[in-house]
Amino acid sequence: MVKTKEKIKVIIADDHPLFRRGLKNAFSETPDIEVVAEAENGDDLLKKIPDSNLSVILMDVAMPGKTGLDLLKQLRDEQPKLPVLVLTVYPEEHYAVRYFKAGASGFITKESSTDQIYAAVRKVASGGKFASPEITEKLAFDFGKSDRPLHENLSDREHQVFMMLAEGESPTDIGKILSLSVKTISTHRSRILDKMQMKKNAELIHYAISHRLLQ
């Protein structure tokens, strides 16, 4: 008797119910991938993982609550062997390297075809890494280049604060969201402006828009 290959069990973490439903329906058409749980935000994801027998976490990076790199780093601490495939609307070339360095197993945009998403899930479930050829090349060759974009010189926390400033959040609001003091946020802002060779928030906003960093 031929042994049936075990299915790849996935949790989808995304704050858009219609997107989760669409992706779940797409996976239902595959013989080897099964959606066993869904989460609407980072905190929900962290609660559901221990109760699910998972092969892959498929998550958006922009959800309410704990999100992005902070969420990924916590997942790596709590579930170091569980592959995380990042699925996002953000431009791949600006974010993938940062997420791979933080421990993601794969990075794919929501504009990808269902066949590409299937391939990404299968690749990371088998222990591999998934990225577009362009990002693979960037990972291999670009880390040491001095002509990389200014925002790539920011630390993960600085990058997070930079994006929130670019989206129009005030230092007070950012401090509340990140559970940091306004003084700490102001220090980050000063370092960001210095590294980005800029003097005011308006320049940060213009840079983020011109480099397609915002949704």
Average pLDDT, to the nearest integer? 86
Spell the H/E element sequence: EHEHEHEHEHHHHHH
Which class best fits the helix and strand makeup? alpha/beta
Overall, the morphology is globular
The oligomeric state is: single chain
Helical segment count: 10
Number of strands: 5
Reading side by side through the largest sheet, how are the strands ordered?
2-1-3-4-5
Poorly predicted segments? none
How far apart, in Å, are the first and last alpha carbons? 51 Å
Q: Main beta sheet, described? A: 5 strands, parallel
Portion in helices = 40-55%
Strand fraction equals: 5-15%
Description:
The protein is 48% helix and 12% strand. The chain has helices at residues 17-27, 42-48, 68-78, 92-101, 114-125, 133-141, 156-166, 171-178, 182-195, 201-210; strands at residues 8-13, 33-39, 56-59, 84-88, 106-109. β1, α1 (17-27) and β2 form a beta-alpha-beta unit. The radius of gyration is 18 Å and the shape is globular. The longest helix is centred in the C-terminal third of the chain and has 14 residues, at 182-195. α4 packs across α6. The model has no long low-confidence stretch (mean pLDDT 86). It has 215 residues and is of the alpha/beta class. The protein has a five-stranded parallel β-sheet with strand order 2-1-3-4-5, with helices on both faces. It is built from ten helices and five strands, in the order βαβαβαβαβαααααα.
